[in-house]
Design goal:
This protein has an eleven-stranded mixed β-sheet, with helices on one face. It has two domains: 156 residues, Thiol Ester Dehydrase, Chain A (Roll); 117 residues, Thiol Ester Dehydrase, Chain A. By secondary structure, it is α+β, with helices and mostly antiparallel strands. It starts with a strand and ends with a strand. Helix content is 22%, strand content 34%. A hairpin with a 2-residue loop joins strand 4 and strand 5. The longest helix is centred in the first third of the chain and has 15 residues.
């Protein structure tokens, strides 16, 4: 376990990850654990995040907000010399967040991040980056981000059936600059999210929205209807090309909610998710 004295700098880590990525030859995940103690929320930063993701201003942290605080620790793990895959090209395919209660502005908490569960996938290999927030030694928030590294898969085919999207309960216009705005508040300034020109360098016709912005935007639609403790679990499907017009649909289930985000015109899926009792 490595105790950090301050959050790592993403401006330093991203270039390092790009320049050293060609050296990665596969292998096992490192067992390094990074921790950061005595973290407190900056109210101005939280307010900026809430505005970008359409949360109400409150002294309670949205369940997706601590992901931003653990993100530099996640990148530090994946930029390390013992990490087996290049960071560039590792695709964020799913995210599950569980909170036992909301964290609050003014509250001090500790962060802990590690890697686990390297496994085969038909299109390559998957692994999880696990972030936790602890108060007085008790885990009150857990974030599991699943990444896919394409190449060298099992060769088994994935069966997927195209289904019609549900009737939208809302239609949202996603502006061209949302990648830059979310990148500014999150620190995740990956070129694929910023401009059409920089996105084209990585094979996208236009800039794409951050997956965690789409999750946060969906979660904001449930404000006032959620308990203090819950799990919100999403799978990221096709990217949202900016600007976009997307449909959002939500339906109650026996254990909470199911929701979908999809293209308003073509119905192509961008995100599917559930909100349920904590696991």
């Amino acid at each position: 376990m490595v105790e950090l004295s301050s959050p790592p700098s993403l401006r330093v880590l991203y270039p390092k990850a790009v320049l050293t990525g060609f050296r990665r030859k596969g292998g096992e995940l490192p067992d390094t654990v990074y921790t950061l103690s005595g973290v407190r929320t900056d109210p101005a930063h939280l307010a900026a995040y809430n505005r970008v993701c359409r949360f109400r201003l409150s002294d309670e942290l949205p369940a997706t907000y601590p992901h931003l605080l653990t993100f530099p620790l996640q990148i530090k793990l994946m930029a390390g010399g013992d990490f087996p895959f290049p960071l560039v090209g590792s695709v964020h395919v799913a995210n599950r967040i569980t909170q036992s209660r909301p964290l609050r502005v003014g509250e001090s908490f500790d962060l802990r991040v590690h890697l686990e569960n390297l496994r085969d996938h038909p299109r390559g290999r998957q692994f999880d980056v696990v972030g936790e927030a602890l108060v007085d030694g008790e885990v009150v928030w857990t974030d599991v981000s699943t990444y896919l590294r394409r190449g060298g898969g099992t060769g088994r085919s994935e069966r997927s059936e195209r289904t019609e999207p549900p009737a939208p309960t809302a239609v949202w216009h996603v502006p061209d600059d949302i990648g830059r705005r979310y990148g500014e508040v999150s620190g995740d300034r990956n070129p694929i999210h910023l401009y059409r020109m920089t996105a084209k360098m990585f094979g996208f016709p236009r800039a794409i929205a951050h997956g965690m912005w789409t999750k946060a935007r969906c979660l904001a639609a449930f404000e006032g209807r959620l308990p203090d403790a819950y799990t919100v679990d999403v799978a990221f499907k096709l990217p949202v090309l900016l600007p976009a017009k997307v449909g959002f649909a939500a339906a109650e289930t026996d254990d909470g909610w199911r929701f979908d985000l999809f293209g308003a015109k073509d119905g192509k899926p961008h995100l599917t998710g559930t909100i349920s009792s904590p696991r």
